[in-house]
Specification:
Largest sheet: 4 strands, mixed
Number of strands: 10
Number of helices: 21
Oligomer: single chain
Strand order of the largest sheet: 1-4-9-10
Radius of gyration: 25 Å
């Protein structure tokens, strides 16, 4: 069987995290089950629920088995799945790399292919005859328009766009045609890894909007875990360096700031900008200032808040007042009719504002207090995203230093979740996350004692 001539010049694509490159060069691109059987470490950027379906979805042709017995490749470049990975902060887009293979590998290796993504509750159609590539919806595969308003068919456009080629167990690196990366810096890192492993280097190119989701300014669509952590640490470094340097602070300490914000959000420039700022988020029926005050009220009712000491209550309250300041100022949204749009980056957009508030408007505070406030604001969405969007718990493991911080973060998160998406307040899942982090903290404490 030969590839139909109209498709002979096409390529197949697989994207992964750059941290997986060394093992891929050593072992080839492996299926999930093959990789797990070898105990190979892997930076997983896939959705848990989707992977559960793929682990049981039967492949009716070829070697049979399940989808996880096969290496997945897309016929499309910039996929809706990559958008979900980036939008939900599962991985930094800059650290995603593409492998490009000639479509002729379908003639070389044991494979099957599908006419839609193999990650839905109802399986797509499977094929093992490459002449039936004509069965795929190539218009959907090539389109850049796959949002909900275009999904009028029984099988949504975004699913047909993600038709998959599935190679059984392993795809050797000698079939690799090209590696596509975010920028020159990542290209240099990829070249270095190839040289260290001793593998002949393919063409390595920087991608653009054909492969990645890029803003008009050439930036990633959303900042991911490593970028967030870097910006958080830069903020902490600046704040600590400049604490107590304000020449004429509005408030002598954090207690005074809390009292002022309880009295009126207009008592701080950044929170004043939230007053009357309408939201385009369907989960918000009120303006951002009203939402903020409601979050503070909900915080005071959480079980975690009631067992905090007075210092932790103070920090959690101040952070709750400040958690959404990154949605302002109003001038950001003039072109949108003055309505604040959904912005996954609003927690880190708050960081420069926190620098000003904590170093200019508050006279004195402890360094640890400044760190905790920045942490609670920067990561106030993390627990909700872990529960509802597949964000990784290892982010939480990385930032939480003790149980007090953990309880403050849970309390602020629960207060926000109750008003944004109450379904995410799953006490069983929250307890599971809490217990997992406490176990990690205990292990870390034991390691420190032993060393």
């Amino acid at each position: 069987m030969a590839i139909p001539s109209q498709y002979a010049q096409l390529s197949l694509y697989h994207f992964t995290h750059i941290e997986n490159l060394p093992n891929i060069l050593k072992h080839g691109l492996l299926s999930t089950n093959a990789r797990q059987s070898l105990g190979i470490e892997y930076e997983d950027i896939a959705y848990g629920g989707i992977q559960d379906r793929r682990s049981t979805m039967i492949v009716p042709f070829g070697h049979g088995g399940v989808v996880h017995d096969y290496v997945p490749l897309y016929f499309c470049k910039r996929s809706p799945m990559l958008h979900a990975v980036v939008q939900n902060k599962i991985a930094d887009e800059q650290l995603i790399i593409y492998f490009e293979y000639p479509i002729q590998i379908l003639e070389q290796y044991s494979c099957v292919f599908t006419d839609a993504s193999a990650n839905t509750s109802i399986p797509p159609n499977f094929y093992d005859d490459i002449s039936r590539l004509v069965e795929l919806d190539w218009e959907a595969i090539d389109t850049w328009r796959w949002a909900g308003k275009y999904d009028t068919d029984i099988i949504p456009v975004r699913q047909k766009k993600q038709a998959e080629a599935l190679i059984y167990r392993v795809l050797p690196h000698d079939s690799l045609k090209k590696v596509i990366v975010w920028n020159t810096n990542i290209k240099n890192k990829v070249e270095k890894i190839f040289k260290e492993i001793g593998i002949a280097m393919p063409t390595i190119t920087t991608g653009g909007k054909d492969y990645f989701y890029v803003t008009n300014e050439g930036l990633p669509l959303v900042q991911g875990p490593y970028s967030i952590y870097r910006k958080y640490n830069e903020t902490i470094e600046f704040v600590i360096k400049n604490l107590g340097c304000a020449s004429s602070p509005r408030y002598s300490n954090l207690s005074d700031l809390r009292c002022a914000l309880h009295e009126n959000l207009d008592n701080l420039p950044e929170t004043s900008e939230l007053i009357g700022l309408e939201s385009n988020n369907i989960m918000h029926s009120e303006d951002v200032a009203t939402h903020t005050c409601n979050v503070v009220s909900e915080l005071l009712e959480t079980s975690e808040y009631t067992v905090m000491n007075n210092t932790d209550k103070l920090l959690a309250e101040v952070a709750s007042f400040l958690h959404d300041i990154g949605k302002g100022p109003k001038s950001r949204w003039v072109s949108k009719g003055g309505r604040q749009q959904v912005d996954p980056d609003h927690p880190i957009k708050a960081l420069p504002m926190l620098q000003r508030i904590l170093t200019k408007d508050v006279g004195t505070m402890k360094k640890i207090s400044a760190k905790v406030i920045c942490k609670l604001v920067c990561y106030h969405d993390l627990i909700g995203d872990i529960i509802g969007k597949g964000r990784r718990i290892k982010e939480l493991e990385m930032i939480v230093k003790n149980e007090r911080e953990l309880y403050m973060l849970i309390a602020v998160s629960k207060a926000d979740m109750k008003l944004v998406n109450p379904e995410w307040i799953d006490e069983e899942k929250i307890c599971s996350i809490r217990d997992s982090i406490i176990e990690k903290l205990t292990e870390s404490s034991k390691d420190d004692d032993e060393s």
